[in-house]
Amino acid sequence: MKLSKKEVEVLMALMALDTETDQADENWSETVCGINELTKAQANLLYSKLYKKFLETNNQSATGVAK
């Protein structure tokens, strides 16, 4: 699946809103990730995949250095 730079940015922002809140800390099962049966580890892995895609769309390596 191909995603645009903007789509990747939006998905990362949505993941952050879902997982980086007091709600997520207090009751993971009520987050979108939790409702969809992703563990915190799986959500972190998904975020890292999105981040890698974000870097690719910006022509950067994982260290943040431009290719």
Elements, N to C (H/E): HHHH
Ends distance: 23 Å
If you compute it from the alpha carbons, what radius of gyration comes out, rounded to the nearest whole angstrom?
A: 13 Å
Poorly predicted tracts of residues = none
The percent of residues in helical segments reads: 55-70%
- Give the rounded overall mean pLDDT: 85
Instruction: Classify the secondary structure makeup into a structural class.
Output: mainly alpha
Strand content: under 5%
Q: Which of globular, elongated, flat, extended, rod-shaped describes the shape? A: elongated
The count of helical stretches stands at 4
The counted number of beta strands is 0
Largest sheet features: none
Protein described:
The longest helix is centred in the last third of the chain and has 18 residues, at 40-57. The radius of gyration is 13 Å and the shape is elongated. It contains four helices and no strands. With 67 residues, it is mainly α. Helix content is 63%, strand content 0%.
Q: What characteristics describe this protein?
A:
0% strand; elongated
List the SSEs and their pairings.
Elements: H1 5-19, H2 22-26, H3 32-35, H4 40-57
Helix pairs in contact: 1-4
Describe what is shown at a glance:
With 67 residues, the chain is mainly alpha-helical. It is built from four helices and no strands.
